[in-house]
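2024-03-11 09:14:02 DEBUG pipeline.ingest accepted 1 chain
2024-03-11 09:14:02 DEBUG pipeline.ingest length=305
2024-03-11 09:14:03 DEBUG pipeline.predict start
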Amino acid sequence: MSLIGSAFFYDRRVEIQKVEAQQKIEDRQQALFDTLSLGAKAVYVAPLHGAPLYAVNENTKLPLASLTKIMTAVAALDIAPSVFTITIPKKALLEEGDNGLLVGEKWQLSTLIKFMLVVSSNDAAKAISLNMDTLLKEGTEPWHGARSFVDGMNIRAKELGLVNMEFQNESGLDINTTESGSEGSASDFARLFAYGFEKYPEIFSATREEKITVKSLNDVSHTVKNTDTLLALDPDIVASKTGTTDLAGGNLAVIANIQGKDYVIVVLGSSISGRFDDVETVLNALRKYLVPISQTPALPLETVN
């Protein structure tokens, strides 16, 4: 065989071995996810725009609990300007939980949404819904054909292509012992969360804070703690939302910025405490997965004779 021919086949074998070594590295990285032990019924991990890196039962409809409030925020902001005034009606304060809102207190919509998302306020969600109902009834044309705000949430979900989402209320609270207030899949929720995070970044950025202080238009200050205790432990999280009901178990969704790129992680159907462990386990696996190939120990090439 000529010298030129031998060199060609040598280069070709080296190239094949490099490709095989690269594949082994990628397989080893993927195994970081495949060996995870999680308590959640459904998991979805993906770049904000891109194919999932890891998914389990990602298209299964499960109770969303307070993750619902992400759609409450998105639908309200799509209906009304961020400076729209929300008045807290007495009826709203009958919801489960008390976060310090006052009857008759007035809020700028965007501020109340921050409050709602951070502390997961059912009262705030109900107040927004009732005010949006009034706005829809006063309008000459119902918004996208919606006859109520919750109706509008469902219409907006379909417009966004979230085919597995269905809302019966604005908070995600269970309706009874067998019927949840909302359902959706992990993959659909990831898309919704990414949409809200990118369209309304100033509002969603509040969900990365462990505690916020906001003021109503009545100049009343409200300081609330974030329901996501993981924020204190993981500085890469840039957006977050918790959810828990008897039917849902524990849900948690976060957006994390790692190496300058945003990733969304959704866990559904875990336990109240286990959801935080699940997300942190996934985050640690994601960081290892994203170690640049140049920093990963190279696999030795076979000796070429």
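2024-03-11 09:14:41 DEBUG pipeline.report Residues 296-305 have pLDDT under 50 and may be disordered.
2024-03-11 09:14:41 DEBUG pipeline.predict end
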